Amino acid sequence: MWNEEQMRNYLKENLSQGRYNHSLGVEDAAEKLAKQYGANIKKAKIAGLIHDCAKEIDKKEILDICRKNGVDIDYVLEANPSLLHGAAGAIMAQKVMGVEDEDILSAIKNHTIGKSDMSLLEKVIYLADYIETSRKFPGIEELRNAAFRSLDEALILSFDKTIEVVISRGNLIHKDTVEARNFIICKVAKEKDYNK
Ligand SMILES: [Fe+2]
Ligand SMILES: [Fe+2]
Known about the structure:
Oligomer: single chain
Low-confidence stretches: none
Radius of gyration: 16 Å
Shape: globular
Bound molecules: fe (ii) ion
Strand content: under 5%
């Protein structure tokens, strides 16, 4: 596997300055969240750093990379290939950077859409991507505070936000995002019930 310096150099060459800075921000936020919630810090930092390694590859090539590597592409993904930059990023991380760790690969793969029953590392990276320091949108402070109070409740807020934005733009919502949100809402409700 590449070392961190090789990964950073690759990102510097293949991403805009803004997205490179975002990647460093996600690495940092992922480290903090991993510490807070007991995830593997080293894996969180690597996944955070390279999560967007395929973000600036053009849509046709992203589709091509995913098709050649057996990614299931439904009509929503076909219509929005940029949603596949997570899946393509995991493929690049493995094939180009030599990352073999399944936790890291699945966290990169699922950072864009989310999925039902996400692992701890998947949640950490999804949220780190949302709250890193260069992010600015209404409600970000509330989300940053929530992120260090409850991982699951912060994730629900993130999925709410994502779905709101997708609707406001008139775009398609991927079913995995809906399932990710439903799953966590049910999980949190069950835990509250149990603790009564
Ligand atoms: Fe991304
Ligand atoms: Fe990102």
